[in-house]
């Protein structure tokens, strides 16, 4: 063991002496000996062989890191874009709702100045295309009763036909498809809409009896020959029937023609209200029905 320890010490000392000698020989020289050149070339070639694969491996892991960063950034961008689209849609819907409510507020203020009716705003919760009905979120608990008139900002749309505690069904004007027997005055006043010409309330009178789906117009009947009604006139409810109060705008006269028997006249009325995109409507409450 002692001999082995002495050999290690001797080898270490010889290596140290050779290093000092080599440093002394090469210090200050601008040239290398052939052993030095051989050693230099060998080391450089070996380093080159090791460096390239190491560079490829390092670049591979760097690319993976960059791909992961891009994936995370794209995920954040997609989430941001989705949130932006959702917020934009919600903002547009709120702006449209705000405009409708502003129109509704202006409408109710104008109506208050014209008459003593109360207009209860309601939201349409269901549309029955087949039966031409809508369901609104007001019912008996809100004081809603059958046969109350219902309108939009544009004009009359129908009347309440069925009421539950929290909801009510409204029959639209487009569901009026039965011609009423003119001899049945009670049925005419209860089922038809008694109307007149705005500005000629004391001279004009007739009934909206049914809706013509082909021309998409309401049909006004029982018009007397001396009635001043003309195309372009505005038709409003006369208040002489049993259901609809006075002064609600219905539509505009498109044409006036003789009836089937030539005794009275018939007029085609284009409704002011749109029946396809109802969102908020108004139930008209008369003072004595509050």
TrEMBL record:
A GO CC annotation given for this chain: plasma membrane
Coiled-coil boundaries: 84-111
InterPro entries per record: Cell/Rod_1, Cell/Rod_MreC_2, MreC, MreC_beta-barrel_core
Keywords carried by this UniProt record: Cell shape, Coiled coil
Pfam families: MreC
Keyword NAD: no
Keyword RNA-binding found: no
Domain called Rod shape-determining protein MreC beta-barrel core: residue spans: 127-285
GO terms for biological process, alphabetical: regulation of cell shape
Family, per entry: Belongs to the MreC family.
NCBIfam families from the UniProt entry: mreC
Protein function: Involved in formation and maintenance of cell shape.
Protein name per the record: Cell shape-determining protein MreC
Gene name of the encoded protein: mreC
């Amino acid at each position: 063991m002692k001999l082995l320890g002495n050999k290690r010490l001797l080898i270490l000392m010889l290596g140290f002496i050779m290093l000092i000698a080599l440093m002394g020989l090469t210090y200050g020289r601008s040239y290398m000996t052939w052993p030095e050149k051989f050693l230099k070339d060998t080391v450089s070639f070996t380093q080159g062989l090791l460096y390239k694969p190491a560079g490829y491996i390092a670049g591979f892991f760097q690319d993976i890191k960059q791909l992961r960063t891009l994936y995370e950034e794209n995920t954040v961008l997609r989430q941001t874009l989705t949130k932006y689209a959702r917020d934009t849609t919600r903002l547009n819907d709120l702006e449209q709702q705000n405009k409708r409510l502003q129109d509704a507020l202006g409408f109710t203020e104008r109506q208050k100045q014209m008459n003593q009716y109360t207009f209860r705003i309601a939201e349409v919760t269901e549309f029955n295309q087949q039966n031409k009905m809508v369901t609104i979120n007001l019912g008996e608990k809100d004081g809603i009763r059958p046969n109350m008139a219902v309108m939009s900002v544009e004009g009359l749309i129908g009347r309440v036909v069925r009421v539950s505690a929290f909801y009510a069904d409204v029959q639209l004007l487009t569901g009026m498809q039965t011609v009423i027997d003119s001899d049945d005055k009670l049925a005419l006043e209860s089922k038809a809409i008694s109307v007149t010409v705005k500005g000629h309330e004391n001279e004009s009178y007739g009934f909206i009896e049914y809706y013509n789906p082909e021309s998409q117009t309401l049909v006004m009947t029982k018009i007397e020959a001396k009635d001043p009604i003309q195309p372009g006139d505005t038709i409003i409810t006369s208040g002489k029937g049993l259901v609809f109060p006075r002064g609600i705008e219905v539509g505009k006269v498109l044409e006036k023609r003789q009836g089937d028997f030539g005794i009275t006249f018939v007029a085609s009325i284009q409704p002011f209200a749109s029946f396809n995109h109802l969102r908020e409507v108004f139930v008209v409450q008369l003072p004595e029905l509050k």
